[in-house]
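Data deposition worksheet. Section B asks for the primary sequence of the deposited chain exactly as it was used as input, without tags or linkers unless they were present during the calculation. Section C holds the resulting structure in token form. Section D is free text for depositor observations; keep each observation to a single sentence. Incomplete worksheets are returned to the depositor.
Section A, Depositor: J.P.
Section B:
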Amino acid sequence: MEPIKVQSEGGLNVTLTIRLLMHGKEVGSIIGKKGETVKKMREESGARINISEGNCPERIVTITGPTDAIFKAFAMIAYKFEEDIINSMSNSPATSKPPVTLRLVVPASQCGSLIGKGGSKIKEMRESTGAQVQVAGDMLPNSTERAVTISGAPEAIIQCVKQICVVMLESPPKGATIPYRPKPASTPVIFSGGQVRADPLGASTANLSLLLQHQPLPAYTIQGQYAIPHPDLSKLHQLAMQQTPFTPLGQTTPAFPGLDASNQASTHELTIPNDLIGCIIGRQGTKINEIRQMSGAQIKIANAMEGSSERQITITGTPANISLAQYLINARFRDVAAMWNDPSSMTTS
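Section C:
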């Protein structure tokens, strides 16, 4: 999050990035014929508007710029969607006009601030803007982000987005965010053993094995004043491949398919090499605490035993808690592997 730059009459004017999740048809409407619509939106709003690549049912639209530019871009998108609704109604017997709906993608660590204590903040936003606001209970698949759905008239949506931006600026995300990346509806993945999987998590694991086929990296990277040792990526690869394949999160509630839906606590143990345990613990325990908080599981890391090159991790909780904790640990390994392969993406974590 960039620091505040200007105090303007309209409030805080800062550079901000907002991500929207759209269906293919909505993206087509925003792009327009030969890209004319999105070009006009960029020019008139002054915001950068980027649309994720890929033949996916869903796409991410990223809007970046000063807050004033972001609000102009949102206004243009909301009015365009309303225009689409009006046009579709001309060929329909329906008499009541459905609301415009936008879906924001927000780091899960900021969602508590959007909801407020006992739902007070989200209630205030609904009442003061007239828009309907819903925060998804589950994280989007293979990410630490949630969908925030806003519905209403374009004017109500714009006012609601302004309030959401203020909350996001006042409560920056905690820890590293694993962004949601839409996957193709079904991409078969062939593993070395000839097994074929078609789920998104299988695809991300296969991507990890491709990531790890790069040339060997130097043992250390200079970051600021510190020389940071590289993790052994072959070990990261092995760990990621050994983890149980989990059903993508956010697709079922309240339980995961294939798991005992009971709330009976159980225990699961993992073995992690000593030289990779720091990836999971994080600086001053930030990462392990984040995983504990998100998963709801108890996670204990055994002390290093003399002569042993491994550490034992014990996860206790309901089957769903354990599954989520394992998934987050696995995601952390993938995140670190990607970071070392792309030094430009490195942040202090």
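Section D:
The CA atoms of residues 192 and 206 lie 10 Å apart.
Residues 67-89 form the longest helix (23 residues).
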